[in-house]
Amino acid sequence: MKFAVQLVAAAAVLACAQGAFAQQGQTVKMVRIDAQTGLLGPVGVNQLKSYQFFAEKFSGAGNPAGVKFEVTGIDNKLSPTESLNALKAAIDGGARYILQGNGSSVALALSDAVTKHNERNPGKEVLYLNDSAVDPDLTNSKCSYWHFRFDADTSMKMEAMSSFMETQKDIKKVYILGQNYSHGVQVAKFAKETLGRKRPDIQIVGEDLHPLAQVRDFAPYIAKIKASGADTVITGNWGSDLSLLVKAANEGGYTGKFFTYYTGVTGTPSALGTNGTGRVYQIAYNHYNMGGQMDKWMTEFKAKYNDDFYTGSIIRIYQTLGAAMAKAKSTDPVKVAAALEGIKVSSFNGEVEMRKTDHQLQQPLYMTVWQKADKKYPYSPENTGMTLAPLKEYPNYVSSTPTSCQMKRPS
């Protein structure tokens, strides 16, 4: 009897030991569904390369779970319909982790589709990891248990941006320009709300929304901005819609300030060139001169791809996934989702937390300004000789915004 008890105990210990490392050596298949072609394709191409670059860094001994990350991409042409087809193809191909970021309209469609898939297919659940889509609805009225956002949402960034603008007493008249989809609409909404609260003396002298990734000449918009008398423009534009906008501003002689979300993204540094010094600002969760290990990674990425790394949320996805899989002792999306809720990890700029209430990562934000690269801030995107230099860091609690999410968790 004693021997039998010892056998059972030994078996239990062995089972626990095997469970602790059940995921070690497993390959985690991840598919990124995003634009690879068209005007906004260069951004998606850069980010897919970024995922694959860091998959090597964070695989095996690079994560506490000991798993290998494998990332492939599907071109969704920035279309929600194409994205849903891509989602089905990814799931049919065995992927349990879906990655996406460019276009909140796509993100909302994917979040809904993933939620419905998981409800209808118990045992075949997938997780949706959002690196860049920032519509606040994704973690508020349309939140999903199966969606986790690693970027800071539009309202969080505007909270920090408006805190900085509050101190800039030369800002008197603001023009809001954005892309005509959920993100652009939300930028305008929160810009008016936060400035009204912090700087009620500022006049909103104009507001425009334009078609996403269709405008090739922004000269008419610059003419309207100049005619309005605006000394500052707020825009959530990204990709070609921002690079072509600043190009038109340079050519049209507009000398006001630009407050942006995505100055550092593919194409915009080259469009700015040496123009806009001290006038173009970016609010983001990282920047080109973070220092330490990030500098080494960025230098290596540029040497390998002749391109710039800027989507720091990709690093956080690997860090939190590795930690969650180690905690869950599994790569099963159901167990990993539970482990991700409330998880805290040390990242490239301090501790970040995946808020359990709504699956929105809580993280520091930075206000940076376009200026000449120097010894203190040497990184030069797209070899422009310029850089985004940090002006102000906003800790997690400053940009954290409340949520209305009523999370429906699986039983």
Concise summary:
This protein has 13 helices and 15 strands. With about 400 residues, the chain is of the alpha/beta class.
The largest beta-sheet arranges its strands as 7-6-8-9-10-14-15
Tell me the Rg in angstroms. Answer: 22 Å
Strand content: 15-25%
Largest sheet: 7 strands, mixed
Could you report the average pLDDT, rounded to the nearest whole number?
94
H/E element order: HEHEHEHEEHEHEHEHEHEHHHEEEEEH
In CATH, what is the homologous superfamily of the largest domain?
Response regulator
CATH topology of the largest domain: Rossmann fold
Structural class: alpha/beta
How are the secondary structure elements laid out?
Layout: H1 2-20, E1 27-34, H2 41-58, E2 68-75, H3 80-92, E3 97-100, H4 104-120, E4 127-130, E5 147-149, H5 154-166, E6 173-179, H6 182-198, E7 203-210, H7 219-228, E8 232-235, H8 240-252, E9 257-260, H9 268-272, E10 280-284, H10 292-305, H11 313-328, H12 333-340, E11 344-347, E12 350-354, E13 361-362, E14 365-372, E15 386-394, H13 396-399
Parallel strand pairs: 1-2, 1-3, 3-4, 4-5, 6-7, 6-8, 8-9, 9-10
Antiparallel strand pairs: 10-14, 11-12, 12-13, 14-15
Helix pairs in contact: 2-11, 3-4, 5-6, 7-8, 11-12
